[in-house]
Design a protein that fits this description.
The protein is α/β, with parallel strands linked by helices. The protein is built from 10 helices and 9 strands. Helix 2 packs across helix 3, helix 2 crosses helix 10 and helix 3 runs parallel beside helix 4. It has one domain: Aldolase class I (TIM Barrel). The chain starts with a helix and ends with a helix. The longest helix is centred in the C-terminal third of the chain and has 17 residues. Strands 5-4-3-2-1-9-8-7-6 form a 9-stranded parallel beta sheet, with helices on both faces. Strand 8, helix 8 and strand 9 form a beta-alpha-beta unit. The chain is globular and about 45 Å long.
Length: about 220
């Protein structure tokens, strides 16, 4: 199965920010147990060591889970970060913005490109320059009325909702035609991680995975 087919099948991408080491491993195991098989490890742009930290985290996950899960890099803002992610086994590149150089570099390395966009112009520009999926961000802030208004003229573009996606509204995004969602707060809950409550993470993951497979 190709990376893109894997993403389109499982639909739920967990966004992991500032979680490393054993906490990240336990989180991944809890997600997999619940049926969530995609994780995005973000570059913390405020950290001067973000390339080293994120690359190390992705490498650890790839080594641990092989082909049972697929991992990508998130908050990718430079070509250098694309290359660093590729070198440690990342399969997809996710950004908060539409950067044509980042899209081109991602495709040059044979990775799946998922740039972020908000307006119809940004969405179409990303799509026309090779994005495989366009991340609508911030979906929750934009709201369902906005989303419904823009869907008709861009129904040919695969969209991933990110920002404010919960168990309560995920099904609605899917019913509108979204290819999936990027989920942070509900699946990478810092309170649950600090409390080592990975059973709760698995419970939430099971809910999202069940919604994804009902689509």
């Amino acid at each position: 199965m190709t990376t893109l087919d894997f993403i389109l099948k499982y639909k739920v991408i967990t966004i992991c920010r500032k979680v490393y080491g054993d906490d990240l491993l336990q989180l991944a195991h809890a997600l997999l147990e619940g049926g969530v098989k995609l994780m995005e490890v973000t570059f913390d742009q405020a950290d001067p060591n973000c390339i080293e930290k994120t690359s190390g985290a992705i490498q650890m996950l790839v080594d641990e889970f092989k082909e049972t899960m697929m991992f990508g890099a998130g908050t990718v803002l430079t070509k250098e970060q694309v290359v660093a992610a590729k070198e440690v086994g990342a399969r997809y590149i996710i950004s908060p913005n539409t950067d044509l150089e980042v899209i081109a570099e991602t495709k040059r390395h044979g990775l799946v490109s998922i740039p972020g966009a908000m307006t119809p112009s940004e969405i179409i520009t990303a799509h026309n320059h090779g994005a495989d999926i366009v991340k609508l961000f911030p979906a929750g802030t934009l709201g369902m009325a906005y989303i419904k208004d823009i869907l008709a003229p861009i129904s040919h573009v695969k969209l991933c909702a990110t920002g404010g996606v919960t168990e309560e509204n995920f099904g609605q995004y899917l019913s509108l035609g979204f290819s999936g969602a990027g989920i942070s707060g509900r699946l990478c809950d810092k309170k649950c991680i600090q409390a080592k409550d990975f059973i709760e993470i698995t419970r939430r993951a099971t809910c999202f995975a069940s919604l994804a497979q009902c689509d």
